Amino acid sequence: MSGATGHALAIERLSKRYGSFTAVADVSLAVGQGEFLTLLGPSGSGKTTILMCIAGFVAPSEGAIRLDGRDITALPPERRDFGMVFQGYALFPHMTVAENVAFPLRVRKLGAAEREAKVRAALDLVQLSAFGDRLPRQLSGGQQQRVALARALVFEPALLLLDEPLSALDKKLRAELQDELKALHRRIGRTFVNVTHDQEEALSLSDRVAILNHGKLIQQGAPAELYERPATRFVADFLGKSNFLHGTVREVFAGGFAIGAGSTRVVTAAADSPPLGSQVLLSLRPEKMALLAEGETAENSVTGIIESWSYLGAGYALNVAVPDFGTLRITLSTWNAPIAPREGLALRLGWSAAASVPVLDDAP
């Protein structure tokens, strides 16, 4: 298959209403050539509706969709030249693997020799060249998903749309196919738009992630940017786990500020500081805290008691009751954990000023 450069997609002020219910509200997004964009959000966030509008299966109430600057909002799906991979594979059970992959080419009336060559190349791409004569029921779930990918790519579409393509697989297989899908994207250089509610999948696969909730675009950016600098409580809480520290701004200084909660002071690094006396919410990831040994210091420290703990294989998850902040969650690596966790154990937690990030409190 050719490694053609992907196409650029623009979604401009897209809205979709069903009667009085608004599924998507004024969403604008730009997807660059060859980019892997993931639409991430909980059920009902509007991500699948946006994907269906891109595909042409759903007509937007307002807004426009442009491919390389050309308005395609009113084009029917068959004229958009987009490949699509569905959650349930949607393979024809009575057709062989090769016949399934060849189906889009038959619809486009390609000759037999050209069809064979393209099917062979597509199956090579997903490492299934030896499975062309098998029926879908003779394949594993992961193999069936790779057939669906080959079928979506065989006609070299302008865009590849992925509707939760890995959600039906078990965790280990899902992780393996994430690696394969990411490598595939890099090899062929096409533009991918993916929908998922799985945070790990979004972080590992994407060049950029757009986080949605209640039909609105909340934040978009590179995975590391979103994880390290979430803009709102929802983003911090949905994309991984986070502790939230409420307090009042008591000091402002160059490069940051300090909040107070009861008798506890927390220093935070920030380019822009809120005014003195304002209420602030900080997000603090569990892995960014450490246990402090006797006499050890940190920019921020609190004392607490272990309420409960869990063994997670690679790490421990501790729930620690801390005065002024309630229960904080901390994760420790098991191989070098400085303690053996037990309920009721007293300890000190420390973290840097850069670890806690101010976020907008958008909790309902």
UniProtKB/TrEMBL annotation:
* Keyword Membrane found: yes
What are the entry keywords?
ATP-binding, Cell membrane, Membrane, Nucleotide-binding, Translocase, Transport
* GO MF assignments: ATP binding
A Pfam family for this UniProt protein? TOBE_2
Report the leader peptide range.
none
Q: Which InterPro entries does the UniProt record give? A: AAA+_ATPase, ABC_SmlMolc_Importer, ABC_transporter-like_ATP-bd, ABC_transporter-like_CS, PotA-like, Transp-assoc_OB_typ2
Source domain of life is Bacteria
Which residue range or ranges hold the ABC transporter domain? 9-239
Give the EC number(s) listed in the UniProt record.
7.6.2.11
- The reply to whether Membrane figures as a keyword in the UniProt entry is yes
The reactions it catalyses are: ATP + H2O + polyamine-[polyamine-binding protein]Side 1 = ADP + phosphate + polyamineSide 2 + [polyamine-binding protein]Side 1
What NCBIfam families does the record tag this protein with? Answer: potA
Similarity remark: Belongs to the ABC transporter superfamily. Spermidine/putrescine importer (TC 3.A.1.11.1) family.
Role of this protein: Part of the ABC transporter complex PotABCD involved in spermidine/putrescine import. Responsible for energy coupling to the transport system.
PANTHER family associated with the record:
SPERMIDINE/PUTRESCINE IMPORT ATP-BINDING PROTEIN POTA, SPERMIDINE_PUTRESCINE IMPORT ATP-BINDING PROTEIN POTA
Question: Could you give the subunit structure recorded for this chain?
Answer: The complex is composed of two ATP-binding proteins (PotA), two transmembrane proteins (PotB and PotC) and a solute-binding protein (PotD).
Q: What is this protein called?
A: Spermidine/putrescine import ATP-binding protein PotA
Q: What gene is behind this protein?
A: potA
